Amino acid sequence: MEILDKEVILKQFPQLEQPLLEELLKQSTLKEVEEGEEVMRTGQYIKSTILLLSGLLKVYREDDEGNEFLMYYLEPGNACALSMMCTARTEKSQIMAKAVAKSEVLLVPSHLSEMWLGKYKSWHNFVIASYRQRFEELLQTLDSIAFKGLDERLLFYLKRHVKVSGKEVRLSHQQIADELNSSREVISRLLKKLEQTGAITLHRNYIEVHDLEIV
Amino acid sequence: MEILDKEVILKQFPQLEQPLLEELLKQSTLKEVEEGEEVMRTGQYIKSTILLLSGLLKVYREDDEGNEFLMYYLEPGNACALSMMCTARTEKSQIMAKAVAKSEVLLVPSHLSEMWLGKYKSWHNFVIASYRQRFEELLQTLDSIAFKGLDERLLFYLKRHVKVSGKEVRLSHQQIADELNSSREVISRLLKKLEQTGAITLHRNYIEVHDLEIV
DNA sequence: TCCCATCTGTGACTATTGTCACGGTACGCG
DNA sequence: CGCGTACCGTGACAATAGTCACAGATGGGA
After folding, report:
1. What are the pLDDT digits (tens) for A41-52?
2. Which residues from chain A sit within 8 angstroms of residue B146, using beta carbons?
């Protein structure tokens, strides 16, 4: 645990009121997580709200057979309000959060987070807004799975990835297939088609995105 | 708007504290909805939290082309905390709540609901618990769509329906197909297979469920 | 009672997605 | 610089789900 730099927090969470920030500094834990490291898993003992200071997290679902699919990304300034919500069940499927890049997170113990809901209006608003945003994103994911074919889902996936990490998508076809719960060959084929339209260019281990709207 | 029977509310929501119940009686609106009537639609002007007193609601997603899929059911004693969450967007997809049977709902204006979060501990707990439950159910639906074939999804659907409305499932194949965002013929075929295992018996406009666990 | 609207069953065909097999390519490391 | 490992491309085939066409069943009014 390091000394928290108040300015860093302030910059990411300008909407939080002063006294709340003071408490945040005193009561929360800063944690650095490496790329690929697991940040949260539903049903774990420690329940905290997670505030992302830097880096990038992906939140995804994993079933009992190791299948997974991406729910959404968390960017700096976002909170994973989910963690407040998750009961300590040890059931089959789980929600996982993993660092996509080296990240810094702030862990707020659940009891504090709950208390602050009443104590600090700005916290209350922040948590509600977080929920709202995450929920909307989850619904978009849900829609694309329920209503769309794999080709459109791939497009949706790429757009989202571009939004959080830029036009150089450094992923193998296998990784994409995993996050869409599909198979490598199928993704390769679809990507090839996309390349033929001129929307992207394929390279080893990364995809250069030109324009995904033209498709 | 009728005179609210305090005892009815009390029975459905025993976990709420006395002064809160008083306020509920004064400030909320009772509404009767007929079978098939729409109770909520995201993006509508009036934002309220919905408490279900009697009957049964289904909450589902509908996209711009009229496709739909069932998210979950709401039973008496449940709240649709979602309505607090839904911004007034007029986007493509929507969350809808519709009465499956004649129902009575209590509408709590959003600003009160939010205020009570701080004022009444029991309300806070109730809302959080509602979220949690609905969210878990939504995730189950999500799982079944993402990871399972249509046969398993149908089973899951039937089980859930049995849980809320008993072993006589009064639905046409077409209705089931709609709620699973599939087509009638496919559902008919799968149901036929289920009948052959002895799990169900098919009739016109209703399905007699014997045992869905044996499959 | 008879007729029509609705519901159900089924075969044939198509489209999409997943699986298998295999060959080629690029990169990193000794 | 060559060798191995991971990555990518592709054809053939299988499985699942959606579509079309049509026939038969059923039940509720006129």
Report:
1. 876 666 788 999
2. 61, 67, 69, 145, 181
